[in-house]
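I hope you will forgive my troubling you with a question about protein structure. The record follows directly beneath this note:
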Amino acid sequence: MSKSRWVSVPKDLGPLSHIDHAAECGAQDTGVSDADRERIWTAMQGLYRSGVHPAITMVMRRQGRIVLKRSIGRVSGNAPGEIGPEVPLHPDSPVCLFSASKAITALLVHKLAEQGRLRLDDRVADYIPEFAARGKGAVTIRQLLAHRAGIPTLPVKHPDPSLLQHWDALVHLLCLAPPFDPRFEKQAYHALTVGFIVGELIRRVSGRELRDYLHEVLTGPLKLDSMSFGLAPERRALAPKSHGTGPKPFWPVTQYAQRIIGVSFERAAEAANEDGFLSSVVPSGNIFANADDACKVFQMLLNGGELDGVRILKPETVAEAVRPVGKIQYDGMLMVPLRFSAGFMLGESPFGLFGPKSHEAFGHLGFVSVLCWADPRRDISVALLNTGKSMAPSSLLQLARLLGAIGRAGR
C-alpha cells in the first residue's frame, strides 16, 4: 500500500484546526450540551485522522443557530505527495459539493413549479420535445428528479470528463438514449445524466442560464457569495483540490465507481481540479460553496422556505420537494435501499444516510463523503464538506461515528 496516497496526520491537530468562535453560539442555548459539541468535534478529528481527507470543513446549526463552524487541514501543502507551501484552510473555504449539487439545482425546478410555470407531474417532453425519443415521452419531471427516468448512464462507451464542456451535445445524446426501464418504475441513481436534462428544462422554462437563475432565485436573495456552478479563476486559490486517497481501489470497488460515474475514482478526482470542470456548469455535480452557505440552504428548507427574513420558497413548495416518490427501493446503480423525493435523498430508521433514526431527514450525498442535510426531528441543518475521495473502510467508519455524534447531539 503506497504511503503517497495517505495524508500525513500529525499527533497534534491544533495547527491544522480552525474554530470560528465568533460564529458559534453557546451550545447550551440550543439544547446541545458542551459535551455533545466536544463529542462531535472529536469525531470530526477522528475523520481527519483516517488519513484520507486533506481538508474538512463543517457547519452545524441547531434551532437555526450555529453550534459548530470548524475546519481541519490545509487548502494546499498537506495532500498526499503534494509539495509546496502550506496554505491555511478556513471554515469559509469553498469546496465542491459534487452530487449534493443535485438538491440545490432541484430547488430551481421547484421554484418554477411554485410560479406556475411547470408542474412536477408534467412530462419532460412537454418542455423538451426531443426527450420523447426512444419511448421516453411518458417520463415526468417528478420521475426525472427521483432517478426514475431510465437513463442513469451516459450513452457513451468510454466517456471522458471533457464531455462536460459540451452541453448541447450531451443533451442531444441523452434525448436519443433508450431507457433501460420502459415503464419508468425502477429507481437507478442518475449520477450525471439527470443534471443536464434538469438543467435544460430550467433553461427552456425560465429563459435564463443556470448561473443567472441560481443567483436570481437563491444565492442573491440569501447573499450566498461563495456558492456557484464551477469556480471562477480568481477564486480557485481559495479552494482545496480533490484527491484520490487511501487504498488503491480494487475490484469490485473499481467496477462500482465506473458503473455509477462512468470513469474511475482517480480520474473523477483529477477531473474535478481541471479547468474544464471548474469553468463548466454541471448541474449534477459542480456547485462550489463554503460549508456555511451550503448549511444556510438546508436551514432555509428546515424553516419552511425562509431564512433571516427572506422568503425563497413557500412552505408547501418545500413540503412537495421533500415528499417521498414511492416507497424505498433497492437502487439499481447504488446497490443499496434508498428513498428519494423530487431532488433529495431521504433518511431512514434505525440508521440511514444521515445517521441514526433519521427517517424525517432530507439532503444529499456527494462523492462518497460530502453530506448536506436537514433533520426536522432534531431541528438541525448540517454541511460536511471534504476533499478526499476514497472508499477506505477506516474513513467510512469514522464518518459513521461522526454522523452518530451529530444525531445524538440533536436529540
In short: The chain has a mean pLDDT of 94.
